[in-house]
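Researcher: We plan to redesign the surface later, but first we want a full-length starting point. Tokens attached.
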């Protein structure tokens, strides 16, 4: 009988000095790239000010269950999407626009690192690193 073990080992089980260095370089590269991409951004357009406003009301009123915009219920989207932004906006009484983009930086970096780990597991270290670098430099990640 042929036994096939798929995903039997942990992602971090292969971690050696070279592997941890590649992971760290990818982490720092992605964080710096994403921070630079949102550094000069303002909350403009149609969606960004509205989402930040809903998250700000959540942070001010401490009501994280029902999203509100200008005091009225805004039930078009679930409230869980606003929680990371509300948490980052609650760090300051007069938050700069940068804090509204902070969760996107961390979630984007996490996505790049997960892509690296999956690529490393499926095709090796170099392919995983390339996959992470390619994802980190795409337009959808570095708005």
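Model: Full-length starting sequence:
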């Amino acid at each position: 009988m042929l036994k096939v073990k798929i995903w039997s080992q942990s992602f971090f089980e292969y971690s050696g000095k070279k592997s941890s260095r590649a992971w760290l370089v990818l982490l720092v590269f992605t964080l710096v790239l994403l921070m630079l991409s949102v550094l000069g951004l303002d909350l403009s357009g149609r969606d960004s000010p509205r989402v930040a406003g809903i998250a700000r009301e959540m942070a001010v009123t401490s009501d994280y269950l029902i999203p509100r915009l200008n005091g009225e219920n805004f039930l078009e989207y679930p409230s869980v999407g606003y929680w990371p932004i509300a948490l980052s906006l609650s760090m300051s009484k007069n938050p700069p626009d940068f804090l509204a983009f902070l969760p996107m930086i961390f979630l984007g970096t996490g996505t790049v690192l997960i892509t690296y780990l999956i690529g490393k597991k499926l095709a090796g270290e170099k392919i995983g690193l390339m996959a992470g670098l390619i994802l980190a430099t795409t337009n959808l990640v570095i708005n």
